[in-house]
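Section 5: illustrative case.
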């Protein structure tokens, strides 16, 4: 069981790294990258599996912390999903417009929200015992 927990924890941390790393790769013109959405899915699924393993074990589980982290993880996933959808629509409409006008990417706000809430989730994980 310990090996499974370590594998899930590694995947969980990789999901967070994908979200934050994806954001920093496009920080000059922020947008939701598909990897950010996939990272949020990975974090949500592995987080739920980690809680399941913790519940099966002998240790005590902080349900308040888990509840807060679950709500924040769902928000991250929803923001990433909405941003990815907006990004796809924006990319599909861009060739039709033709001109080289500078417009703000519609998924920029969602990209900011995704990374902010992902960092909040890390802060909750570290500081709430």
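Designed sequence:
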């Amino acid at each position: 069981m310990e090996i499974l927990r370590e594998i899930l924890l590694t995947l969980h941390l990789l999901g967070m790294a994908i979200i934050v790393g994806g954001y920093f790769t496009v920080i000059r013109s922020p947008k939701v990258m598909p990897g950010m959405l996939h990272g949020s899915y990975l974090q949500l699924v592995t987080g739920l599996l980690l809680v399941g393993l913790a519940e099966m074990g002998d240790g005590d589980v902080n349900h308040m912390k888990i509840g807060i982290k679950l709500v924040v993880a769902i928000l991250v996933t929803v923001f990433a999903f909405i941003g990815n959808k907006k990004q796809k629509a924006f990319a599909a409409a861009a060739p039709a417009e033709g001109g080289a006008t500078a417009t703000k990417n519609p998924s920029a706000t969602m990209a900011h929200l995704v990374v902010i809430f992902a960092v909040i989730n890390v802060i909750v994980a570290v500081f709430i015992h």
